[in-house]
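Table S4 entry, Reverse transcriptase Ty1/copia-type domain-containing protein.
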Amino acid sequence: MHDELNNFKRNKVWTLVEKPKGCRNVIGTKWIFKNKQDEFGIVVRNKARLVAQGFSQIEGIDFGETYAPVARLEYICILLAYASHHNFKLQQMDVRSAFLNGPLHEEVYVKQPPGFEDPEFPNHVYKLDKALYGLKQAPRAWSSEVGGWVGWVGGWVEDEAGRRRGGGGGGGGEIGGGGGGGGGGGGGGGGGGGGRGGGGGRGGGGGGGGGGGGGGGGGGGEGGGCGGGG
């Protein structure tokens, strides 16, 4: 639990402020506990995640747009088949506590974590600067942020297949997907390969993926992926 709160501090997720006057909606928070297992089913870590109770959010006040692109399974299968056929090397990465990196554009307040209330300001609340797992707009905030990092632009077919800016001739661009999910929380991402350039063909390759899932208000998933080149 302390590790989770340290993640909040490191990512500058929130600021403790006096509770706003009036009818401002203050969203509750909840601890979710999970035993993380390895490939053999052995528990390797006891994990705690603080999530927002997104079911109490009010549309138009606490959130606006919630859509975030998610890589379709068909794209990932095509990518793997294409890379295997051309003997491309795929790379994958994972972002720890991905949603905590997504800046919020709405003014959102949450209650202090149960069991970790500030003794000097027990009635204060946290103003969110970045997304929390469980918020309805968390997947969109993360998708927009990671897209800016790697420079994705919309794909030729759908948004989840993006083309990196500044590809140039000779080689190939990369294709990838930002994390996303629906409702209260969740995330996923994927990558693809191939970019137009040079010699008239499609070349290059990259890939990646990662994801998790979560439910509205209570749970959250962890994930986020972006692609590398080949």
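Helices lie at 2-10, 73-85, 138-150.
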